[in-house]
Amino acid sequence: MNLQPLFEPKTMAVIGVSLANSRHPANVIYHKNHLRYPVKVFPVNPRGGVLQGERVFTRISEVPEKVDLAVIAVRAEYVPDILSDCAQSGAGAAAVISGGFAETGQQGLQEQLVAIAREVNLPFVGPNCLGIYSPSHMDTFFLPSERMVRPDPGNVALVSQSGGILVDQMIKFAEEGVGLSRAVSIGNKALIRELDFLNYFAQDTETKVIAFYVEGFGKREGRDFVLAASQCPKPVIVLKAGKSAGGSRAVSSHTASLAGDYETFSTILSQYGVVEAKNEFEMVTFCESLSCYQQSIQGNVGIVTGSGGHGALAVDVCSAHGLSVPSLPGQAQREIRENLSSSAQAIASVANPVDLTGSAVDDDFAFAITYLSRRPEIDCIVVLLLPYLPGITSDLGARLSQVYYQEGKPLLAYVPHVEKYRMFIEGFEINRIPVSPSIEGAVLLAEAMRRSKPF
Amino acid sequence: MSAEIKDIISASKELGWVLEPEAKRLCSLAGLTVPRFIWATGVDEAVRFAQEIGYPVVAKIVSPHVLHKSDAGGVVVGIGSDEKLGEAFHRFSEFRGFAGMLVEEMLAGIELIAGAKVDYQFGPVILMGMGGTGVEIYRDITMRMAPIGQEQVESMVSSLKAHQLLEGYRGSAPISMRQLTCAMVAFSDLVMDLEGLIESIDLNPLLCTSDRCVVADARIMLTTEKAPNVPEIPK
Question: What is the pTM of this model?
Answer without folding.
Answer: 0.93
